[in-house]
Design brief:
CATH superfamily of the largest domain in chain A: DD-peptidase/beta-lactamase superfamily
Order of helices and strands of chain B: HHHHHHEEEHHHHHHHHHH
Number of helices of chain B: 16
CATH architecture of the largest domain in chain A: 3-Layer(aba) Sandwich
Strand content of chain B: under 5%
Structural class of chain A: alpha+beta
Strand content of chain A: 15-25%
Number of helices of chain A: 22
Helix content of chain A: 25-40%
Number of strands of chain B: 3
Shape of chain A: elongated
Largest sheet of chain A: 7 strands, mixed
Distance between the termini of chain B: 9 Å
CATH class of the largest domain in chain A: Alpha Beta
CATH topology of the largest domain in chain A: Beta-lactamase
Structural class of chain B: mainly alpha
Number of domains of chain B: 1
Oligomer: heterodimer
Amino acid sequence: MSERSQLRLFVLRVLVVTILATLFGRLWFLQVYAGDTFDQAASANRVREVVEPAPRGELYDARGLPLVRNRTALVVSVSRSALQRESDRGAAVLDRLAAVIDVPAADLAKQITPCGMQSAPPCWRGSPFQPVPVQEYDARDPAALARVLRIEEHREDFPGVSAEFAAVRDYPGGQRGAHLLGYLGPLSQEETTRPEYAGVRPTALVGRSGVEASYDAALRGTDGSRQLLVDNVGTVTGTRGRTAPQPGDTLVLSIDAQVQAVAEDALRRAIERARTMESRAGGLLVADSGSIVVMEARTGRVVAMASYPSYDPAVFVGGATPAQYAELVDESRGAPLVFRAIQGAYAPASTFKVVSTAAAVSSGDYPLGGSYPCPGVYAPTGQRNFDSAPLGTIDLRTALVKSCDTVFYKFGYEQWQRDGGNRPVAAPRDPMIAMAKAFGLGERTGVDLPSERRGTIADRAYKQAFWESTKDNRCAGAVNPALTEERRQANAEFCSDGNRFRGGDATNFAIGQGDTLVTPLQLATVYAAIANGGAVLEPHVGRALLSPGGAVREIAPVVKRTVPVAPEVLGYVRDALSGVTQPGGTAAGAFVGAPVAVAGKTGTGEVANAQDTSWFASFAPAENPELVVVGMVSQGGTGGTVAAPMVREVYDGIYGGAGRAPALPGGRLPDLLPTRRPDGSIAPPGMP
Amino acid sequence: MSLSTPVRLGRRDAGLRERALGRDAALYRLDWVLALAVASLIGLGSLLVWSATRQRMIDADLDPQTFLQRHLLNAVIGLAMAAVAALVDYRSLHAYAPIIYGASVLGLVAVLTPLGSTINGAHSWIVLGTGFQVQPSEFAKVALVLGMAMLLADRRDRDSPPRTTDILAVLAIAAVPLALVMLQPDLGTALVFVFLVLGVLAIGAAPAIWLGGLVVAGVLVAGGAVQAGVLDDYQLDRFAAFTNPELDPRGAGFNSNQARIAIGSGGLLGKGLFEGTQTRGRFVPEQQTDFIFTVAGEELGLLGASTLLLLLGIVLWRGLRIASRSSDTFGRLVAAGVVAWFTFQSFVNIGMTLGIMPVTGLPLPFVSYGGSAMFANLLAVGLLQNVHLRSREL
């Protein structure tokens, strides 16, 4: 063998050793040095986590009656991303689907389009990559099953369409309490990253309004999961582990389903009645909307909360169709989705006089036992009594019972003067404004419901802010030749001193008119404070959460503060209010033969470019108040003619008047809570 | 050194029986280290092929041992072929080389005719009835080794470096199968041929300038092929995926990624035979053939995989030892060619599963499932033994 060959053999030998060493080195690197990374990758490869959704907690009323339950439904969903892969972007699929599920294809297209730049609701608010539920059927309905089978049997015709059994909300009471209970909706893409939705699967439905939203975290429970072992094509080869889902808590509300029905019926009937009545300005009353709040005077527990117009919460099960959603937010149809009790804000009008009275007396300016003139017109401002009738010199009780405006004009105006009038002192006392704030007006009541409005107190700061935000426009209007001389004049005045808190602002404030706005629930808390001796309560509709494990979390009443009003003043006001429903009072006609002694106050709110707001705020029994009932009808005329009879009907329903069986004998919610039986069903309070 | 020594003739006269079992019998004089290493590789490979296919067969409601049985049958047939190759007269080997070469070229041509068929994306098969197919390119490796060794050994000046004409002749007989394989196209096998040529020429004492020139020419041709678009897109994709494995983890880079996950997750001791999650879950495609090493890596860990490397190392080492001890040029070149072939194929195959070589469809010698490759590999081992027996005799 030549030397060269020997050398070459040696080189080949070295090469072989080098190659083997290289392979070994790489092997060591992959298996030992970087082994953990690959170990994780291998696990991620073969383990698929399948979420086992937690059953959502059900909702019961204070007496253990079901308000919202779960039932099994067949939900037809469409995956938009799958449709987009079709050559015609899924148009043919939607046409075929439309024929099967009886929803117009155009509506389907809108429903599955993610809410974005150009698409206003109806549109898909959830994640764009998640199938959109478009139709929902009762799983027990054979006709529905037949439809869904048509989809399943012709899978090739319906790419991206799926039909699955799912737990959906069921409403045994139909429309009852729709606003209060709320509805469910998908998480938006952005929300999935928020901390409050941590651990919520992206396809989950979460509470979107009502207690479904405010108690969402407790109701939704914790999803379980199953770790399935899969092969490369996703075939399940085994189970690695399972975490059982934690069902959500059962929510017991302080709502009484029967009283809720009483309130809703009374509200609807009052509105229907009002629409046959003449308005002050002539023509029939519009009575577009209204609300009733029934609340325990001492605890702030809400017994019923009605809002008109209402809607069927079932339309949200499986997703509202575009037409349905459009109807729910249509102003001309009264925007049924708006929860008037906490989202409607109106001038409180004369119902506010309880606060004015408390402020006038507590300020030390006007003795409780004093006598005050009630002329037809209050001279310093030229403002009239509501019905212009002079009542002579009267006491405060009569001022409330007869709702004399001029007495309160006087209080408001004189206190304004004491604060310096048009040249206010450095720190004006503003006793009425301070009292209104002490009663919790101008701030959210803190009720356990989402999207509550805070209302408005038209105080000095409000005037200043309003002026600042509008003055540029108004100052320009002062020199706009296109406007009338009169308008230019008004604009010029506003421009120069529209921020000034005038005497007229103070007098308007004293009778609850002007820009001051309250929600029916706020007014209920004001009357509860009068009734219970001064405690401003945080209203609650949630009574207790019952966990599947048996733990009971009661939602305790909360006293936000106590009003700075002496007990004898509150007692005086209560007594005066009991006179309102007696002969000679503004609501006397509505309460003849009432099943319980009711104390209350009418209110007729004047609204620019609309008919009056009709109010009646009350509590009963007058001597030992248990319940507060506040009723309001927007564009419903005077308080005494529409709202007061409506509230009377609620009392009749609760205490059993006008031949009706009492819905809540004694006006008291049960002290005991419903309990959770071991099988998960709910036992009424005090029952096994 | 001559092929016609009296001793050799005398042995031949003694008959096959005497040669196989007699006092000086081949059985005693075999390179038993090589034989045991090859047997161990086949044994280990059988387990790995079994594990790689067992779950799939169970899922398909078939006999889980189907592949194991066929693999073992292939091994037995291959061992018989090896025995023949080891015991056949050395001279006749030399004499038959042109015939073997010609037959294999015909086989490669047949693949390109309507006789050829495509299996698993490779158009390199001839189907001879149900369940029996042949891959002529595997046998072409054996034929090319023999052909080149014969050419270089037959030249007149045996102790001087081969002349240009000899080298050109070698290149010419290599070019024919190379071109035919490229037409399939089977880039991996073509590269095996290239390294075979380089190995045989190197050990055949060809001047360094030729070797260097061939390497440069090869690079230029490869570059030109890419530029001219001769390579299929999938081949380019594989290279792109090799340079950047995360480029397309579900596409071209998928095999490579999954292979590395399988091996990397095996750790030091592995997950245990039949317990590999990547293997059972069939995440690594072509696992019983091209990616068989991943089963070793995943289920037997660093320990098992490096044992496999060690066994391959022993085979290569013994091959080199046989080459260096060979009493003649032909034997030395045959051994060198076989070692170059096994070395290159092992490196590319394992390197590909480890992510240090691009994905090319080359089986791992003795370990991968596949009849033709098993037969060709064992024939080559038989040749090594033949050379070994011959060298010990003198």
